[in-house]
Amino acid sequence: MSATNNTKAAAIPSEEILSRKWDECLSNVIVKSGIGLSVGIVASALVFKKRSWPISVSTGLGLGYALSQCERNFNPTLVPVAKYQDKK
Amino acid sequence: MMNVNRLALAGSKHLRPSQYRVMAQRFNSTDAQKLTAAEAAARPVVKSGLRFRTKAFITLTLIGAGVAGVVKHSFDDEKFRELLEDNIPHYAHSLDKLEQLRDNEDVEKVIAGATLVGGKIVDLSKTGYRTASDLINGTTTPAPEKPAASASSSAAQLAKKVQELEQPKPAVAASRAEFVPSETPAPAFLPGAAPGKSASHVEKPKVAEKVSKKVEEVKEEVKEKVAEIKENIQEKIAEKKEEAPAPPKKLIKIAPIESEEPVMSSLNATLAQLVHILNENGIPEQGHEVFEKASEELKHLSERVEALKVEGEAQAATVMAELTEKYKRIVDEKEEHHEGHISQLKRELADAFEQEKKDAIERELKIQQEILREEQKQELIKYAMDMQRRWVREVKVRVENERGGRLARLDQINLRLKTLERQGVDNADFLDQSSRTHQLWCGVKALEKAYEAGERRPFDRELARLKRLAETEKDAEVLKVVLAAVPESVAAHGVDSVPELMDRFEYVADKVRQASLVPENGGVLAHGMSVVLSKLMFKKHGLVPGNDVEAILARTEYYLVENDLEQAVRELNQLKGWGKRLAKDWIVAARRRVEVGQAIDVINTHANLVSLTLA
């Protein structure tokens, strides 16, 4: 991912950075939530006896993952334990 | 599969029996026939799972492992430790205590002692096992060498080796010592040389001895001879003495004979002496008589001598007179003769002299003649040379005059030719320069055209042409530098035109506005909020003061419209944060355009200058 990011950065004109980030974010969201959705459907169908909660859980997980990816994309300085560091 | 079945069945307790039977059939379980809810309820309930004790034990073990792991990790990781210390009360205190325990030396000693004890126990057990096995089997196994003992034995071996190494040293020293005395016999041959010398020394004295011996022998011979002679003399004297008659007892008296002759007087003296000696010694009478006789005879002798003298004188006189007369006559004759001879000789001499004079004069004349002739010749030669020189000089002068005339003309011609040449060269230079200036102008114009085109156009060919021109031209350092300052990539890609830049700027401005409200290190939400809220902001136009994003954008737009790219770039450069990042490429492109424009300006001025200096 980082390698492809670098080559992408070489070709992008600078005013498009944010647009690209948004694009990536959007694509991430779609892809990951879609994956989550599908996994949820499959899980609920196979494992959870057609309950509804696996689907939503999975989709939420996918969305959350996409969101965190977006955050990292927009703010590369973000580190998981950053808050403790800030307090220090 | 069986578990799934069981789970499914276990989860299907709420179903009706018919449904349950269907499920069981579906899942094809063997338990389906056996188990129904009622039947299952009828059976005694077997508690599944573990007992409480085991569960507690397992839980406690897991918790203990977890705590140990946490503690260990907190020792290793400072941040983790701090995190825990912050959030768990009394955690720091317990960790400190643990650290003390760990660092405690007593604990270490205890641990070391424990390990030692453990080692000893292990050894003991090993020996016990061996003895037991020996007893059982009836064999004897030797005790294994302890590593410590082997170490000590190896140390002993090392010591032995060291000693062995040290031993050859005294042997070496002994040989060394032997070496030294061997040197002393070396000069033994020197005394061998000395005998040679002493032999020579011995020989020399021998020779000397021989010589001296010979000398001594000679001396001795001489001495002997002298002695003999002396003896002879002495004998003779003695004989003489003996021969001499003994003087009479009475003293001899001898009358001294006086005479004029010295011989006689000396004889007299000697006689007197003899008489005296004899008188002293004493002579017999015979001698006395003899002596008187002798004296008488002496007297006679003296008288005789005198008589003889007189006679002799007379004779001599007569003879002398005769002789003188004879000689006179002879002399006179001779004189006459000689006179005639002399006069003849004189005449002859005079003739000869005259002859000689004539000869001499002739010779002198001849010599003088020759000398004169020589001089004449010399003068002639001199004159001839002089004439020749004069002639040559005249010729030279004439020639030079001629030449001067022509030479001057030649020089003139040469000068003119030179000036012509110079003029020609200057002309050629001028033409060259002007052609180059023209070319330069053309190149600059071409570059300008590419620069001012309505769209981006590459100008690398024009730039290359200008570089070639700059190389051939003199005093083109500035040009070369400026041309070198334009990078190849820029020339190859070309430079954006102003309309293009303006278009791009609108797009960029939009994006910058969208990103203007993002805080530092904002995430997705921040960006999203910025995008949404920026749409609610007013756009500014014209030359507005202020340092916020809108003002900067408005000013940049104003400068762009004014075609003042430099200022626009400077303005846009003042953006901060995301805006700057977004506007970077635009700034770079605009800068490139500005730089190329400046380069073209410089080249223009250079071309101007060249054309001015040309004229």
From TrEMBL, chain A:
Its main location: mitochondrion. It is a single-pass membrane protein. The lineage of its organism: Eukaryota, Fungi, Fungi incertae sedis, Mucoromycota, Mortierellomycotina. It comes from Linnemannia gamsii. This is MICOS complex subunit MIC10. Keywords: Membrane, Mitochondrion, Mitochondrion inner membrane, Transmembrane, Transmembrane helix. It comes from the Eukaryota. Belongs to the MICOS complex subunit Mic10 family. The keyword Metal-binding does not apply. Component of the MICOS complex, a large protein complex of the mitochondrial inner membrane that plays crucial roles in the maintenance of crista junctions, inner membrane architecture, and formation of contact sites to the outer membrane.
TrEMBL record, chain B:
It is found in: Mitochondrion inner membrane. Residues 186-196 have a biased composition (Low complexity). Keywords: Coiled coil, Membrane, Mitochondrion, Mitochondrion inner membrane, Transmembrane, Transmembrane helix. One of its GO terms (cellular component) is MICOS complex. It is a single-pass membrane protein. Component of the MICOS complex, a large protein complex of the mitochondrial inner membrane that plays crucial roles in the maintenance of crista junctions, inner membrane architecture, and formation of contact sites to the outer membrane. Plays a role in keeping cristae membranes connected to the inner boundary membrane. Also promotes protein import via the mitochondrial intermembrane space assembly (MIA) pathway. Component of the mitochondrial contact site and cristae organizing system (MICOS) complex. This is MICOS complex subunit MIC60. The lineage of its organism: Eukaryota, Fungi, Fungi incertae sedis, Mucoromycota, Mortierellomycotina. The gene is FCJ1.
